[in-house]
C-alpha cells in the first residue's frame, strides 16, 4: 500500500514568511509524528498526534511552530515568521496505534530553506 | 535521559567488503526498544529492524545482521558483502517506554564499485 507522503518535497521561503508543510499518513494509522532533521544530524522529535489531538508537543522549539490534524488523518505543520535557523528537513512518520509495540514509518520529508 | 551515540561519522568500503556500524545507547529504563533506519540519498527513512530490551538474540536478515549486547549497551549492525546500493546514512534509534524516537547522528556508508 501507499506509504507516508509529504508535500511539498522542497520549500524555499524568505525570512519572516509563513509556511505550511503537509503530511499524509499511511491509511489506518492513528498515530502521527513530526520530526526535524538538521544537516548532519539525526531527526529530533517535534510533536505526536493520537487521532485528532496533539498528545505531546514538547519538542516544538517555540510558539512559532504549530501543527494540526483536524480529521485524524492528514496533518499540517505550520511555521510562522520563519527564521534562517528553521531550515531543515521536516519528516513525518505514522504508526498503527501509537504505543510502544508500534514501528514508525517515515515519509520522504520536506526540505525547508529559509533565505 | 536517553542518548544514542554513533561514533563513526563516515565509513568507506569497496564492494563485497563487510562493514560494521557501531551504536551505543544510554537509558535508565529497563524496557526500551532499539531500531536501525536507512536513509538513502532520496531522503526517506527506511525501517530495517526493531529489537526490544528483553530479546538479546542476534538477528540475521539476508546480508544484514545485528548484534545486541545489553552488558555493553550496544546494538551494532553489520552489512555482509556490501553493495553499491547499500550506500546511505544509517541511523540507530532508541525508544523508551513511550513513543518518541531518539536518534544518533548517523553513519554515512559509501560503497565503491
What features would you describe in this structure?
The complex is a heterodimer of chains A (115) and B (113). Chain A has 115 residues and is an all-beta fold. Helices cover 0% and strands 48% of the residues of chain A. Chain A is built from no helices and eleven strands. Chain A is globular. By secondary structure, chain B is an all-beta fold. In chain B, strands 2, 5, 6, 10, 11 and 12 form a six-stranded mixed β-sheet that branches. The mean pLDDT of chain B is 94. At the A-B interface, strand 4, strand 5, strand 9 and strand 10 of A face strand 5, strand 6, strand 10 and strand 11 of B.
In a nutshell, what does this entry contain?
With 115 residues, chain A is an all-beta fold. Chain A contains no helices and 11 strands. The mean pLDDT of chain A is 94.
C-alpha geometry of chain A: globular
Low-confidence stretches of chain A: none
Task: Please tally the β strands of chain B and state the result.
Answer: 12
**Overall SS class of chain B:** mainly beta
Q: Helix content range of the residues of chain A, please?
A: under 10%
Terminal CA distance of chain B: 41 Å
Coarse shape of chain B: globular
| Residue share in helix of chain B | under 10%
Topology of this structure?
The complex is a heterodimer of chains A (about 120) and B (about 110).
Chain A (H helix, E strand, L loop, with lengths): L4 E3 L2 E4 L5 E6 L6 E7 L6 E7 L2 E4 L8 E4 L6 E5 L8 E8 L9 E2 L3 E5 L1
Parallel strand pairs in A: 2-11
Antiparallel strand pairs in A: 1-3, 3-8, 4-5, 4-9, 5-6, 7-8, 9-10, 9-11
Chain B lengths: L2 E3 L4 E5 L4 E3 L2 E3 L6 E7 L6 E7 L6 E3 L2 E6 L4 E6 L8 E8 L6 E2 L3 E6 L1
Parallel strand pairs in B: 2-12
Antiparallel strand pairs in B: 1-4, 3-9, 5-6, 5-10, 7-8, 8-9, 10-11, 10-12
Key traits:
heterodimer; A: 115 residues; mainly beta; seven-stranded mixed beta sheet; four-stranded antiparallel beta sheet; 0% helix; globular; B: 113 residues; six-stranded mixed beta sheet
